[in-house]
Write a structure and sequence with these properties.
Oligomer: single chain
Largest sheet: 6 strands, mixed
Helix content: 55-70%
Strand content: 5-15%
Amino acid sequence: MSKGPTLRRDSAHRLKAYFQAKSLMPLRLRNRLASPFPLGIAARLTLSFIAVAVLAAAANLIARETVSIIYLPPPAAPAAPAAPAAIIVPRPITHDRLLAAIDAFEQAYRQRSIATAGDAILIRAADQVRHAALGSPGLERAANDYLLRAHQSVHVADQRRAARASYFALTSSLYERLKNSLDGSLQIFGRVLARQSLVRLRNDFDRVRTLSEIIADGELPSGSQREEIAAAETNYLNTFTANQASLDKSEGSEWVWGMRADFAALVAARSALETLTLQTIDAEWLVSQSRGALTAATFAADSSANQPPAAIAPLPLQPDGIASQAADDHAVDAAAAQDANRPAREMMATVTLLVMLLVIAISLATVRSVLGPVRRMLEGSKRLAAGDTQVELARGGIRELDTLAAAFNSMASKLAAAQEASRLHQATLEDKVQERTHKLRRLAEQDPLTSLPNRRHLLSLLNDAIERASRSGLGLWVYFIDLDNFKNFNDSEGHVFGDRVLMSVANRLEEVADGLGFVARLGGDEFTLVCEQAPSPATVHDIGMRIVHSFQKMISVDQRELSISVSVGASIYPEHGRDAENLLRAADSALFRAKDLGRSQVAVFTPELIESAASRFTTEQGLRRALESQQFELLYQPEYNLATLQMDLVEALLRWRMPDGRLARPGEFLGVAEQSGLITEINDWVLHTAIESAARWYHGAWPGVKVAVNISPRQLMDQRFADLLLAMIREHRIPATCIELELTETVLQTGPATITALRHLHAQGFGIALDDFGTGYS
């Protein structure tokens, strides 16, 4: 079990304890108490200058006038004093500050809900909400309810994230255990039933995993999707129960009960994930309701704050007896002062001493208010440079340094928030990368259509098999399998039907490979079967024929029975290669040989096939250059009527003028042209050139010209051929009787579509002739 949920619960408890233990005194209030009179340097110096100027003026006046200090009696108290004006105490306005704190907490709560990081930001934001709500019991209750709802929502989000991680872990565990069992079963003989059951079990599990991806992504499935998921899980359990006996024998009872327990845990995790998703929606709704209540209470408190404030009662007046006593004492002092008339020089010294003391006091206070904040700022800067973003400077001192300390605290707070946001973003990215890696790993190793290993995974599996074969000394065979005329399925039934045919072929090959090795799909209609622990090289052809004969039984696709044939090429380790690339290349060369032999054939690699492939490649490249540089020629062979001794027609014969001047006959290059697809361009050039020649003769000295041109099966199967032929004779202004189309027996064996095309051409006036009769299988 992952430790993530436990850590998140501990974080939630610490967050709650912090809310309860944190001092509720606002930071601004504490700073105000530490520095009750925040005066700046300019204000302090101005006060000092004014004090010095006042005292200096008084001293000069005394020195010039030489007057004595006379104590005047205080004015008498009025008989009926008027009541002093009431002192107004303004009430704090919390509207803007509380709304700003709510918005900051909402943003921190949203960020904390989508990732495990961000507790520090959430704590500070909650602290600001609580401080802003102080002074009003209604606001405090609404704020506590809002913070509690947010805490519960974060807790539910953490549980949902933990459930998703548990679901992904169970899915990966089940998939890896099935994969390892399939790979391990290939090395043991007599495991045919277990192999088939493992294949079906893996296919059913892939169905469950694919349908459950919407729940794993954190979304709620619809009713129909939930029914499909339940049906897929039931199908998996039925397959598992039906094959439990064979799996118990092949894989062991511990494996069987482990798979059953893990799948039950997976179903429970999927159900829990759905429940937690619903709880997350409900919790977020409650948070929204609590926030609305707190906002409404804030506006209500702000409205009540605008009512007329209460007045503070005036202080009571002193009794008349005390005032009269003070007047008597003052009269005695005034009389004594007038008797002690000090000299002007003593008064001057006293004033000067007072001025010096005042200046020294102001200077000391100014130095103290400067050095203290500067020392705190230097210490805070060192801590911030060392990485402590939680540093907070105490406020106080002169106004400029106090403002600078406030800016420093704001900068440190923003830096801490930026670091928390960066960690939050990093945690979110790591979660996304983990999910994408889980999906990409499956796509990188499996063919998406057949769920077989793809070409990349095949190379890895084949290299591992070669290493095992080199250690054990047993044989290893590689078979290249290609479907005969698979293009007809795509052309006639569509690519979707062709994909279903490939899936059925993959299942048939897995049945054949059970007990022999493993199957992979290279792409298109090409598959590979790797046979491990091969008995002897003498049976390599027999196993290839076994693959061919397995497709003699009809394949069912969409309730239709289809007959499919395959051609197989084989290579042997280590005779034909010691690595995966060479073995695959040798098997591919053998497959070309099997294709040349006809349908449902098997060919084993021989060194001569490499030479044949090289020759075929050279011929193909030469044909491409011949089409570009006009190296083809048409020779016209006349045919005479023995009865009339007249030349009735000429037959167009294709020749290739080689670079050395030799004329190559069609038998030397037409086979390669058919395989490479160049035959279409060559046929078009022959037909166009022959019609041009016929047009010159028809409009010249031979009006009764008749040119015979050989037609390939590919041309007749092209629906545009007839229209193209008619357009060419109209362009050259010759009748259709000037052209005779010569066919071979193989053309007539291509099907009813060929007969229909020939009837259409004959109806247009073209001549039809059968050439080389008796050489085929008509």
